[in-house]
């Protein structure tokens, strides 16, 4: 099989949550366990860091991988979904899995795949673990997909678990309260394995504490160790964070190319995770931390997080797609100086659109588009809800056509923002 034929085979025979939704989600780990056992349990051959959360887990995973790379470790990174290429999901020291290895994996394990019939996500997890074992990584940073307790990645016993922000998302599967969602995320906490909680939230912190106590897992709430005191942009397009180490009272500064507004919630967790790794014998210097955080995107290929596509007019895209993430994006947008705000938005059909659209400034000009996936909500349906909210809205189903129209209308003083769904961002031609 060629690479294209291999992907066609996987997409056609395996249910993919990103495309079809809940029917692709299996509420136990049996398929993943069966796949891995059939492959000789490759996940038992390397060390790992496991990351769950609603918002921030992808950025956090890339940041930790970047720092570990700077420290000289052969570092695997597994994230999902991909934006442009399937190979983005599996990286070693920032390099995507070679297309030939994707072909080799499927050819080597095709009989096993057809026997187990896993979901697309279960298969990619197994492929990542096979790739990391085959290439003898020193450590792999593993991001969960949905939840944590029943997520396919939750077969690993990591050296460190980390849980980021908790917000409402995928409530049909994870629960409709923050406490219920936190319980699912807390499922990655393992016996005697330290866990870091990036953001202490009133509704969720006790869930994590109770789960950690039950598992005899040392737990740290990051803000008890590191507190952000100031953030600002520098002239080179980096974000400057001033922070204080709580125990010593010392102040310090770091630069990062993670410039999104929500990164202030992630940075304390990243710093505390590094601190715990250092305490457990991982050789990571202060310079490794500073250089790793300054070059996350170039080291690991991170895309789509407050990604500036062009400066005249300022055109930004972001993959935030739930209420918690979009609230921070909108808050940051409103701090920018602009004459007119153009919003190009698309959503999947499992979102509360009334709640999400109310987050955006009513004076903006809205263009609704529709990603080319079955789960996409039709642009016309989004506009109907926008009409109920008296928003000035238009339908341009293709995101790139919508961008072109906005650029013709916008002046140098305006801002264009594209988002609402990872799948809308994935179709932006300028990200190729």
Any overview of this molecule?
It is a single chain. The protein has 432 residues and is of the alpha/beta class. The chain has helices spanning 3-13, 17-20, 30-38, 57-70, 99-116, 120-134, 171-174, 178-185, 205-214, 263-279, 286-294, 296-300, 323-333, 353-357, 379-388, 399-409, 422-426; strands at 47-52, 75-78, 90-92, 95-96, 139-143, 160-163, 195-197, 219-221, 226-233, 239-245, 251-256, 307-311, 314-317, 341-345, 365-368, 392-395, 415-419. The strands form three sheets. The protein has an eight-stranded mixed beta sheet, sandwiched between helices. The chain has a six-stranded mixed beta sheet with strand order 12-13-17-14-15-16. α4 (57-70) packs across α11 (286-294) and α5 (99-116) crosses α6 (120-134). Residues 17-22 have low confidence and may be disordered.
Lay out the secondary structure.
Elements: H1 3-13, H2 17-20, H3 30-38, E1 47-52, H4 57-70, E2 75-78, E3 90-92, E4 95-96, H5 99-116, H6 120-134, E5 139-143, E6 160-163, H7 171-174, H8 178-185, E7 195-197, H9 205-214, E8 219-221, E9 226-233, E10 239-245, E11 251-256, H10 263-279, H11 286-294, H12 296-300, E12 307-311, E13 314-317, H13 323-333, E14 341-345, H14 353-357, E15 365-368, H15 379-388, E16 392-395, H16 399-409, E17 415-419, H17 422-426
Parallel strand pairs: 1-5, 1-6, 2-5, 6-7, 7-8, 13-17, 14-15, 14-17, 15-16
Antiparallel strand pairs: 2-3, 3-4, 9-10, 10-11, 12-13
Helix pairs in contact: 3-6, 4-10, 4-11, 5-6
